[in-house]
Amino acid sequence: MSKTKVVIVGASHGGHQSILELLKRYDDVDIKLFEAGDFVSFMSCGMELFLENSVTDVNDVRNFKPSDFDKNENVEILNNHQVTKINADKKTITVVDTNNNSQEYQYDKLILSSGVTPKSLPVPGNDLENVFLMRGFDWATAIKNKLEDPSVKNVTIIGAGYIGIEAAEASKKAGKNVTILDVIDRPLGTYLDAEMTDILVTHLEDKGVKVVTGAHIKEYVGINKVDAVKTETNEYPSDLVIQAAGVKPNTDWLKGTVALDDRGWIKTNEYLQTNLPDVYAIGDATLAYSIPADNKVPIALATVARREARYVVKHLFEKIPALPFKGVVGSSALSVFDYHFAESGLNSFTADRSKVALKSSFYSGNLRPDYVPEGKDNPKVCVQLFFNPNSHILLGGAILSTYDITAQANILALAIQHKLTVEDLADADFFFQPGFDRQWSILNVAAQHALGEADF
After folding, report:
1. pTM for this structure?
2. How far is the C-alpha of 180 from the C-alpha of 158, rounded, in Å?
């Protein structure tokens, strides 16, 4: 009896989880995973830890090794194999290897997890030596070499999102002069509102990182290798430029075959199926259904890709799945030197982009009871809540402190996913023990504050 042929494109989180789910749920599947790159499969979210010498080895910063599946006859991992075309009429894919040999492989089910590609700014000089991107194994090792090079003194980061902030911190800890340039009005502005980003900007500057916003990059200056970054108003000496200016979906090869939106994101229905029969799409290159936005938006998170993979494989052999994909909230966290923050769901920026009306409330208070001296063991905590102004259903939230309480954002994520209200959070039954929390948990108090109640 022949096995069902399941082909997976892309070896990152979505591809990895697809293999795990297939092996867990089915015995009669023949799984082939194709990865265009050589290294399978680098976790770019672990790059800062690698740059700061906080990992066992760069070769360990990965989801899995091909050899992990050597003993399983149902799985074949083919790296250095780029999928270039889907031949839907024949249910085959065309694959080209590093020797430019082309071959077709048949599929019964095809799962696309093609991911995203980092953007290089389309300005003069972007091909100069020492102008790097911050994604993937090759760029990680190249950046590490430069951070260890004493002749590299000035590092300029293009982009003040998560990746840019990670690059800045790693570069500063390596002893470099660091400047962050971004066209937007504040760092991390797509993740946090101004009440929190103002705190982080001050902290970055206290740590010696120069933050320049509203910066329109005109040119990377240099002969052969970069010497400076030129904006409309200034020029910044640069021995190394790290571009962290966003990503674009890796979908050019799908144009004219798989339905894409005008920016190249893969369109799927409520079952994560594409317009082609038996072809599914998951992960960073897709538009994910956001529960709080009630809309499909790009959400490039490992957690999203893995949840989508789990759903797709579970319903892979149902003509019409019993249930649509429930959607995701979208949650993330980051350390910025001494501060730690986590956010979940919508904020003012993402709500406006999805045309969602919301109300916000910002609260700052101590983590533990007043009789514990304020300081390291009783730090300030900032909580921001976003909610529907009429129903009070929670739509988003963020938490920030020098104390690592980022796990509290998981409570917010669960509340948003299940459409709890501010009143629900204000009354939620959390534990109290003065070694950890206050009589009313910080999230209780933040919700009570949002309702206009006096601080406990």
Report:
1. 0.94
2. 6
Report whether pLDDT(142) > 70: yes
Supply the DSSP symbol for 98: T
The DSSP-derived string for 42-59 is B-GGGHHHHHTT-SS-GG
Q: List all residues 6 or more positions away from 104 whose beta carbon is below 8 Å from its beta carbon.
A: 87, 90, 92, 93, 94, 95
Q: What is the pLDDT of residues 251-283, one digit of tens each?
A: 999 999 999 999 999 999 999 999 999 999 999
- Contact, 289 vs 327, CB < 8 A? yes
pLDDT digits (tens, 9 = 90+) for 315-364: 999 988 989 999 999 999 999 999 999 999 999 999 999 999 999 999 99
Task: Check residue 28 and report its DSSP letter.
Answer: S
Measured distance CA(169)–CA(162) in Å, rounded: 11
The H-assigned helical ranges of 174-229 are 194-206
**How confident is the model over 147-199, as pLDDT tens digits?**
999 999 999 999 999 999 999 999 999 999 999 999 999 999 999 999 999 99
Strand pairing partners for 105? 93
Cα 194 to Cα 201, 275, 304, 348, distances in angstroms = 10, 40, 26, 10
Half-sphere exposure for 227 (CA within 13 Å, toward CB): 4
Helix %, strand %, coil % of the chain (to 5): 25, 30, 45
| 3-class secondary structure, 233 | coil
Q: Is the peptide bond before 354 cis (omega within 30 degrees of 0)?
A: no
- Give catalytic residue positions: 13, 45
